[in-house]
Amino acid sequence: MSLISSYFLALFLTIVIELAVAFFFGFRKKIEIIAIIFINLFTNPILNYLLAVNDHFSFFKVNLLVILFLELLIVLAEWKLLVFSLQEKSKKLLALSVVMNFFSYIIGLLIFR
Predict the structure, then answer these.
(1) pLDDT by residue (tens digit) across 41-92?
(2) DSSP states of 18-86
(3) Radius of gyration of the chain (CA)
(4) Number of folded domains that form the chain
């Protein structure tokens, strides 16, 4: 599998997994689904691009602490984007962002490692 196709697969799986989690949380409206898709179309490529650039230039060693830090940044960014786009309660959307990203990260580890 080429590098580009693996990035698209990772993006697709992230969106599917995070939509499944959102559905479980009760987010089923069209606007909610669209927001989650577009937010992931923004955040996922940024994260993967940063990791790819780092792989090429070796700015820092990628370890669990770095990954957790980057995932925390993604959780916070997605949370704020969800609050902005859905205009809903902040705590519920923070929980959604944490759980969506937890599951997409864990399932991604299982698939891509």
Answers:
(1) 999 999 988 988 888 888 888 888 999 999 999 999 999 999 999 998 889 9
(2) HHHHHHHTT--SHHHHHHHHHHHHHHHHHHHHHHHHHHHH--S---HHHHHHHHHHHHHHHHHHHHHHH
(3) 14
(4) 1
Phi, psi of 87 (to 5 degrees): 50, 50
Least Cα distance to 74 among 31, 111, 40, 108 occurs for: 40
Domain range spanning residue 76?
3-112
* Rounded-to-integer distance, Cα 57 and Cα 76, Å: 26
Amino acid in position 72 = L
Burial 56-67 (b: 16+ CB within 10 A, else e): eeeeeeeeeeee
- Exposure on the CB side of residue 27, measured as CA atoms within 13 A: 23
pLDDT band at 5 (very low <50, low <70, confident <90, very high): confident
pLDDT tens, position by position, 99-113: 999 999 999 899 887
pLDDT tens per residue, range 14-32 = 999 999 999 999 999 999 9
